[in-house]
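Here is the promised in-class demo. Please do not try to memorize the tokens; focus on the logic of going from shape to residues.
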């Protein structure tokens, strides 16, 4: 069964087309208009082995907030749709990822209950042309649209580029583990019988 989703979202602020293959090889084509955000999504794709295509036309003349938040909504929606009934998935995934002086923890539960716990303080307003405050907004949007429980915590930080990149890569690794099919799980991994 292919676990692929194609999602779009068009508002007065953004026009987004996104495709996601959970069982890909890490190939991506990303065009959001924000170079550093493209770099982060490319890292997410590569390190999670997700095939990801993203095209965004956003109101960057205002700022990057709508582009980044709405991309999170569409990515979260694609994750939820690609997972289908969630039968056979491991459900949980976690990663502690080092990047030089930075260490980031990420844990995922594909429970069907949205929640974001985010602990990480940036010391610059921007990395490249991406406002650092939008990083939390992106993960919030993903977690709620995907209906996942998502924890991201910077255990030790320093360089803001490293902190952001470690977050996206740790999320990719944790999500890859959570969506993995386990042959021992014949239904869904829940005592309730549904996720």
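The designed amino acids, position by position:
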């Amino acid at each position: 069964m292919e676990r692929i989703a194609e999602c779009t979202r068009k508002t007065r602020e953004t026009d987004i087309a996104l495709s996601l293959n959970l069982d890909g090889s890490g190939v991506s084509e990303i065009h959001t208009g924000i170079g550093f955000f493209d770099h982060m999504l490319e890292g997410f794709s590569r390190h999670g082995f997700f095939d990801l295509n993203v095209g965004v036309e956003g109101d960057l003349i205002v700022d990057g907030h709508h582009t980044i938040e709405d991309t999170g909504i569409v990515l979260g929606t694609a994750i939820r749709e690609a997972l289908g009934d969630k039968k056979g998935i491991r459900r949980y995934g976690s990663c502690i990822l080092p990047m030089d002086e930075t260490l980031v923890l990420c844990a995922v539960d594909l429970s069907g209950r949205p929640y974001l716990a985010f602990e990480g303080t940036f010391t610059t307003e921007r990395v490249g042309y991406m406002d650092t405050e939008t990083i939390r907004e992106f993960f919030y949007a993903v977690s709620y649209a995907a209906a996942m429980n998502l924890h991201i915590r910077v255990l030790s930080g320093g360089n803001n580029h490293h902190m952001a990149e470690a977050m996206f890569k740790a999320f990719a690794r944790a999500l890859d583990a959570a969506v993995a099919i386990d042959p021992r799980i014949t239904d869904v991994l829940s005592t309730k019988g549904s996720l």
